[in-house]
Amino acid sequence: MYDTTRTESAVSQQDIKISARNVQVYYGDKHALKDVNVDIQDKTVTAFIGPSGCGKSTFLRCINRMNDTIDIASVKGEIRLDGEDIYDRRVDPVQLRAKVGMVFQKPNPFPKSIYDNVAYGPRIHGLSRNKAELDEIVEKSLRGAALWNEVKDRLAEPGTGLSGGQQQRLCIARAVATAPEVLLMDEPCSALDPIATGQVEELIDQLREQFSVVIVTHSMQQAARVSQKTAFFHLGNLVEYGATDDIFTKPQDSRTEAYISGRIG
Amino acid sequence: MPLSWALLASLALAAAGYMVGRSRAFASAGADSRTLHSRPTYHGMSVALLALIPALVIMVLGALARMTGLLSAEAGGVVGLLALGAAVIGLGIGVSRINAGFMARNAVEKIVLGFLIFCSTIAIATTLGIILSLVFETGNFFSQYDWRAFFFGTEFVPRFEGNSRLGVLPLLWGTLYISFIALLVAVPIGLFGAIYLSEYAGPRTRSLAKPVIEVLAGIPTIVYGLFALVTVGPMLRDAIAQPLGLGSSASSVMTAGLVMGIMLIPFVSSLSDDIINAVPQSLRDGALGLGSTPSETIKQVVLPAALPGIVGAVLLAASRAIGETMIVVLGAGAAATLSLNPFEAMTTITVKIVSQLTGDNDFSSPETLVAFALGLTLFVITLCLNIVALIIVRKYREQYE
Questions:
Q1: Beta-carbon separation of A108 and B283 below 8 A
Q2: Distance CA B253, CA B348 (A)
Q3: Does the keyword Transmembrane helix belong to this entry (chain B) (predicted)?
Q4: When comparing pLDDT for A192 and B131, which is higher?
């Protein structure tokens, strides 16, 4: 899977990976997301910023249909992944989520060993034919998450025994091991200290070579550091979307300007 | 003065003391009530407690003395007066102590703490008392009956004219066999029911099904026993035991085990349901976010995370099964047999304890005293199970807090 994505990257550096049109999300009666249109590029880090409750996490969860697990949530509109409507009745959310991985706000390692945590995805999706291949995927993913050197001697120990920053990198390794095409990250650094945050940010930059990364963050500095594209959400609307440099230096909308200069949010 | 009147009077004094203490505290504070060390309610409480506690202690001691015959019934009036006097003196001391600097809150909190410790001590002390009474009588039993014959005897034939054989093995076997069948019924059904309720059922189904299952837990076990006696027993005999030539008795291990299993279903399912629900949603999200199906999520992430708790629930159910009596009497009979045939009548330790102690026997023959040895054996078995269950449950808790 790694090989195929790499050949693609040479051909289509700026392809549109995900395109959303008129996306509406309702939680019961609450209109949480209004008319969102956005095109997310392949091999790019896209940051979603905005004040709490603005709908950025909600939109992120639409991209891999995690909102399906919430009974009262309903999604309208159209989201296409590589041109294919992911809310089409024939699309199985399980297969979709194998392609669109997700890392959550709080590190959530499974109550298994470090090795089994990373091997979980490859095992359920049958990505390896034998133990040697699986070992290779696990090592590659842990190296990718900058965790290999810290855990290589204790792969059999429980993942829950790691520190917070290590747990979050373990969760990233776990997501990377399933060889996704898109990686969604919902405030992945909010529970981490500055050093661990730095490591994760470095990692995000490397991951961009393999697939497109969408990150929700509360920290504008983080958005500026890691992303090439930034989308600003406010009260359920996508207010402004563009190159990160443009959003932070010459925002078009007065609300964006107010937010990045710290006057709202 | 009768004790009940003295009690009422001291309560009234305490209530009055509370009011007086509170207003005195307000008065001593002057214009600014923040100069008080403790809030006025604490001052009131300290006066009330000082009036009530000595009176209560005197009354309890008096009542005990009367029960043991140290005091005559007529002395009750004196005790009542003494108690009332103590209440009045306590009230006086309490009120005179009040000033802005008096640390009433610390005093009251110390008393409340003492009360809490007293209550928890009672629970432990009664357990100790029960064990001691069992141990004492068991000692009596073993002084009259050889312990090897008790623990390794394969027959339980009490004869009140003497020369009984009182081996525990057939009873132990019956207990474990019936409990095993009960768990074989209750654990899978209860657990799968819990998985459905917590992971698949919608909120409406859940709000309907959970109480219905829990109604089963409210049925008295004697009713289950009747169900075993008139329905399940004859049905099993006519449908399975007799056609297969396994026996012709309606009372059987199978009957009691099945019905006991039904009794335990709500126990297992509601405990497991709580435990499965306690698995953090973030773990489910993590697994689903990696593209696992709901069933893979449950099998590989949710259940392993909940497993220690579920094992704890099963062990608790097991100790209930081992202690169950009524269903066994009506479902499995009272014959102590050592057999593998599940359609034969058997009996358990608890049933034999009841049958050895009922009727008019003297409390010195081994036939009666064996009940205490049986009780102690049962107590040790369930205690071990509960300890194992507690250890496992505690280990589970450590993981997510």
A1: yes
A2: 10
A3: yes
A4: B131
What are the chain A neighbours of B304 within 8 Å (beta carbons)? Answer: 110-112
Q: Looking at beta carbons, which residues of chain B come within 8 Å of A125?
A: 291
Tens of pLDDT, residue by residue over A26-80, are: 998 889 999 999 999 999 999 999 988 888 999 999 998 988 888 888 899 999 9
- Whether residue B289 and residue A175 make contact (CB cut-off 8 A), yes or no, is yes
Cβ–Cβ < 8 Å for A191, A164: yes
State the sign of the Cα–Cα–Cα–Cα dihedral B188, B189, B191, B195. Answer: positive
Does the distance separating the beta carbons of B399 and A124 come in below 8 Å? no
The closest CB to that of B286, out of A71, A160, A171, belongs to A171
**Range in A17-31, A236-250, B67-81, B335-349 with the lowest mean pLDDT:** B67-81
Residue-averaged pLDDT of chain A: 87
Query: Is the distance from CB of B46 to CB of B37 less than 8 angstroms?
Result: no
A vs B, Cβ pairs < 8 A, gives 72
Cα atoms in the Cβ-side hemisphere of radius 13 Å centred on B334: 13
In order, the DSSP letters of A164-209 are: HHHHHHHHHHHHHHT--SEEEEESTTTTS-HHHHHHHHHHHHHHTT
Q: In chain A, which residues have their Cβ closer than 8 Å to the Cβ of B286? A: 104, 108-110, 171, 174
> Pairing mode, if any, of strands B156-157 and A45-49?
unpaired
pLDDT digits (tens, 9 = 90+) for A213-226: 999 998 889 999 99
Which H or E element spans position B233? helix B233-236
Structural domain boundaries of chain A? 2-260
Tell me the HSE value of A253 on the side-chain side, using a 13 A CA sphere. 15
With beta carbons less than 8 A apart as the criterion, state whether A43 and A205 touch: no
Question: Does the structure show a pLDDT above 50 at B220?
Answer: yes
Question: How far off is chain A from B201, nearest CA to CA, in Å?
Answer: 11
Contact B282/A104, CB-based, under 8 Å?
yes
Contact B127, B355 (CB under 8 A): no
H/E stretch holding A96? helix A93-99
DSSP one-letter string for B61-126: HHHHHHHTTSS-GGGHHHHHHHHHHHHHHHHHHHHHH--TT--HHHHHHHHHHHHHHHHHHHHHHH
Mean pLDDT of chain B: 87
Interface test with B, best of A92, A100, A108, A172 (most B CBs within 10 A): A108
Tell which CATH architecture fits domain A2-260: 3-Layer(aba) Sandwich (3.40)
Q: Looking at the complex, report in whole angstroms how far the Cα of residue B393 sits from the nearest Cα belonging to chain A.
A: 15
Among A108, A120, A178, the residue with its CB nearest the CB of B282 is A108
What is the DSSP secondary-structure string of B185-224?
Answer: HHHHHHHHHHHIIIIIS-HHHHHHHHHHHHHHHHS-HHHH
Is A98 within 8 Å of B291 when comparing Cβ atoms? yes
User: Best of A116, A120, A125, A176 to disrupt the B interface by mutation (most B CBs within 10 Å)?
Assistant: A120
Token pair in block for residue B129? 């008392």
Averaged pLDDT for residues B301-319: 88
Distances, alpha carbon B20 to alpha carbons A181, B13, B94, B111, in Å: 76, 10, 10, 20
pTM, full prediction: 0.77
